[in-house]
């Protein structure tokens, strides 16, 4: 089915027309390079081995403050164009070598930076955090920000985006069995978290709790999570936070490079891999390209006692990037396809209320079932494809002014197949025709101008527009057809008052008009409902550096979001979650006021961040389970009805790492959340549990010929959720607390002249039986048990 879906002719002619135009645009343009001088500055140089003087191909050169970066070519050279004429911090890193930070001065124009990296082994015994890197962390944002990049991100490859982000403190997951997870940031998820990939806002059917983001985490070189309201910069919906995924900059010097990443997982028999190649042809100056593809295939996962039947999945994705630079003009275009087919645990579908009681009392699947492991994917299941084409242009003009423009078109198709045949179909049609088949076509246009005000001030002014068309091609009417138009206008700036004190502030206005066609069950006809939602956002924050090792930041932000189409009009069985869902067509908008403060520390022997926040949400929309399930001819399903309240989410996220010895790293973290339903004067329904964890990491300079060898054990304890909303129905109490232990060992092995990064990881080391309070299947089955994974990363070129 996956391959069939992959090859399916797409319904959107505009998508492919734009995609073809993108390719045609990039190719002829590349032949017009003339080398015209540019107003922006260029930074170029080489990265070499300090001991041998040999070039280091594939080393990473980043400018974190600008979200820019490049990889060195086979001769160790790099080049970044169109940079602001200002000072900038440059971070250079490479596997097995000590990271280096440098400050470069581009105020007078182009600059050269040559860096020699030292082998980690030569420096072991002296763990040092460079001042520039520490200052980068201290001054990262006035809100709490989590970052995954470099080796840390490579060591997490092969997982879903939700599982990857769960390694950041303050981020948990909302799971639906072992195959589906979506990020939860400080208790908020789905439409309250904006996800951007290379600047394009991800638009799928994210209203569903079991609808994971259609993102290939293999392709990103850096993932950043902004925790808290960020409505000014990212528009309606950014109430809980923002997840940004960015690729590495395209190479700017001739040559071909890349890397291969391979993973194997024992629990589900999963195999995963990714190949990335990029280059810059010498015959076409200014032109660069990157081609990346990945695939994952897994069988049924295993809990400590059972095979979780029909939890297999297959996934594939591809990403083509083309770039062209001519003088101050930079253009890059992306074509991306993501496709997945995944099974839904069969035991989540039951015949009647008594069956549910029996399942809960039994604590697991029916003992008469066939629990044999399989790679087969049967109904109930989901088949999802997501296609994106985008074109981004950037130029610098005048005295360092910047302008960015971006157009994107994306189409998301979601098909969900019931365990039973669709209405009017024969038994032979089981698994062949979806019970609902949704296609969401989104087009967006973004324009942003950044005038160069002064060395101390930065200002961004932008407008955004978006159209959406949602169609359901199947007989079910869980979500109606609709068309929507969005528009937004914003201004956001920052000011450096002194070397230690900086401020940022901004305002934004958005509007959404929507025309939906929900089915009226009383009149037995489709309606025509038009609604317009208007909302504003604002932010004000400050950051104070307390010497070279401490900083404190405070931020006050407001954001809003309109209710999504499911919250308004859903009525029917949602096969992905095996529940009956009922919307509320009279819902208004959500508005939030988020106040946070963050204390950071960076020094040679320790680093840490403590962030406290209070997010007050007016008109918080959520789905509450009814006491009685809904009986249909297709079975009996738990019933969830949309409602709203005023809510307050307050918590603390804290992490600390100390390095008492050169070879020893000790870490601890905690994430505490208290969520209240202000209308009822008690706990809020459906929030994650408190958790605390820690790790011990030991390193060795060389061991058995390997470099940068490490061993790490980590422990996480998740408390039982004891706060239950007044009057809320739970078919069974929240599951008990649990503690999970993990083990990792790894290092860099020489393979001829190629360094291979290898990591062996064991999750749930003691095969603990557990269920999470936010798991949609917590009534039915345990989470996966003991599992080992092997990861290998191989640089090419």
TrEMBL record:
Query: Is the keyword Lipid biosynthesis in the record?
Result: no
Q: Which GO terms describe its cellular component?
A: cell outer membrane
UniProt xrefs under Pfam families: CarbopepD_reg_2, Plug, TonB_dep_Rec_b-barrel
Which keywords does this chain's UniProt record carry?
Cell outer membrane, Membrane, Signal, TonB box, Transmembrane, Transmembrane beta strand, Transport
Cross-referenced InterPro entries: Beta-barrel_TonB, Beta-barrel_TonB_sf, CarboxyPept-like_regulatory, Plug_dom, Plug_dom_sf, TonB-dep_rcpt-like
Residue span, TonB-dependent receptor plug domain? 143-242
| Region annotation (Disordered) ranges | 34-68
Q: Note whether Membrane occurs among the keywords.
A: yes
Name its GO BP terms in alphabetical order. siderophore transmembrane transport
User: Which family does this protein fall into?
Assistant: Belongs to the TonB-dependent receptor family.
Q: What is this protein called?
A: TonB-dependent receptor
The protein's organism comes out as Rubricoccus marinus
């Amino acid at each position: 089915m996956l391959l069939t879906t992959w090859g399916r002719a797409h319904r959107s002619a505009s998508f492919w027309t734009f995609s073809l135009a993108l390719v045609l645009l990039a190719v002829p343009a590349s032949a017009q390079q003339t080398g015209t001088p540019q107003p922006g500055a260029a930074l170029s140089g080489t990265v070499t081995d300090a001991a041998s003087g040999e070039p280091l191909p594939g080393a990473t050169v980043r400018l974190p403050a600008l979200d820019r970066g490049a990889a060195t070519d086979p001769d160790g050279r790099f080049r970044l164009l169109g940079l602001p004429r200002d000072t900038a911090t440059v971070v250079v890193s490479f596997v097995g070598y000590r990271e280096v930070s440098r400050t470069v001065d581009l105020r007078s124009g182009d600059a050269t930076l040559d860096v020699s990296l030292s082998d980690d082994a030569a420096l072991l015994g002296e763990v040092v955090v460079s001042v520039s890197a520490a200052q980068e962390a201290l001054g990262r944002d006035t809100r709490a920000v989590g970052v995954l990049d470099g080796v840390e991100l490579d060591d997490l490859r092969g997982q879903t985006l939700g599982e990857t982000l769960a390694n950041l403190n303050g981020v948990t997951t909302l799971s639906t069995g072992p195959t589906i997870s979506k990020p939860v940031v400080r208790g908020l998820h789905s439409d309250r978290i904006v996800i951007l990939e290379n600047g394009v806002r991800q638009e799928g059917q994210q209203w569903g709790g079991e609808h994971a983001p259609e993102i290939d985490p293999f392709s990103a070189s850096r993932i950043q999570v902004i925790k808290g309201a960020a409505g000014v910069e990212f528009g309606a919906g950014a109430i809980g936070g923002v997840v940004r995924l960015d690729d590495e900059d395209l190479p700017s010097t001739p040559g071909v490079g890349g890397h291969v990443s391979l993973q194997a997982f024992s629990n589900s028999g999963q195999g995963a891999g990714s190949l990335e190649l990029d280059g810059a042809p010498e015959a076409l100056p200014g032109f660069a390209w990157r081609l990346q593809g990945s695939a994952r295939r897994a069988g049924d996962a295993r809990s400590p006692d059972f095979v979780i039947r029909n939890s297999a999945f297959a996934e594939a994705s591809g990403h083509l990037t083309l770039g062209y630079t001519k003088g101050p003009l930079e253009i890059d275009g992306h074509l991306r396809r993501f496709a997945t087919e995944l099974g839904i645990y069969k035991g989540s579908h039951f015949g009647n209320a008594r069956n549910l009681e029996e399942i809960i009392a039994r604590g697991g699947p029916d003992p008469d079932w066939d629990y044999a492991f399989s790679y087969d994917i049967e109904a109930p299941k989901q088949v999802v494809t997501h296609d994106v084409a985008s074109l981004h242009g950037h130029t610098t003009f005048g005295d360092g002014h910047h302008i960015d423009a971006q157009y994107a078109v994306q189409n998301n198709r979601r098909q969900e197949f019931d365990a039973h045949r669709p209405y009017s179909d024969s038994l032979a049609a089981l698994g062949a025709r979806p019970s609902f088949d949704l296609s969401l076509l989104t087009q967006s246009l973004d324009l942003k101008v950044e005038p160069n005000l002064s060395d101390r001030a930065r200002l961004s002014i932008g407008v955004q527009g978006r159209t959406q068309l949602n169609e359901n091609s199947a007989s079910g009417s869980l979500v109606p057809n609709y068309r929507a138009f969005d528009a937004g206008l914003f201004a956001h700036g920052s000011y450096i008052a002194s070397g230690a004190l900086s401020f940022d502030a901004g305002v934004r206005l958005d509007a959404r008009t929507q025309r939906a066609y929900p089915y009226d069950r009383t009149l037995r006809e489709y309606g025509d409902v038009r609604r317009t939602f208007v909302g504003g956002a604002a932010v004000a924050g400050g950051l104070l550096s307390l010497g070279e090792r401490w900083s404190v930041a405070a931020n006050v932000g407001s954001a809003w979001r309109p209710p999504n189409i499911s919250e308004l009009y859903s009525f029917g069985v949602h096969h992905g979650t095996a529940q009956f869902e009922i919307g509320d067509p009279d819902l208004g908008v959500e508005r939030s006021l988020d106040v946070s403060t963050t204390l950071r520390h960076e020094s040679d022997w320790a680093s840490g961040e403590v962030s406290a926040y209070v997010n007050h949400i007016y008109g918080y929309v959520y789905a509450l389970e009814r006491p009685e399930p809904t009986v249909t001819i297709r079975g009996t399903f738990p019933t969830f009805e949309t409602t709203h309240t005023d809510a307050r989410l307050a918590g603390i996220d804290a992490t600390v790492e100390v390095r008492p010895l050169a070879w020893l790293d000790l870490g601890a973290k905690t994430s505490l959340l208290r969520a209240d339903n202000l209308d009822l004067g008690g706990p809020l329904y459906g929030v994650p549990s408190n958790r605390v964890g820690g790790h011990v990491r030991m390193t060795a300079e060389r061991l058995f010929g390997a470099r940068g060898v490490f061993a790490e054990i980590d422990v996480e304890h998740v408390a039982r959720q004891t706060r239950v909303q007044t009057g809320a129905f739970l078919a069974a109490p929240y599951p008990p607390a649990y503690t999970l232990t993990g083990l990792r060992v790894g290092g860099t092995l020489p393979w001829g002249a190629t360094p291979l990064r290898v990591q062996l990881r064991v999750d749930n080391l003691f095969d603990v039986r557990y269920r999470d309070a936010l798991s949609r299947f917590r009534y039915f089955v345990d989470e996966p048990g003991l599992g080992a994974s092997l990861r290998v990363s191989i640089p090419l070129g």
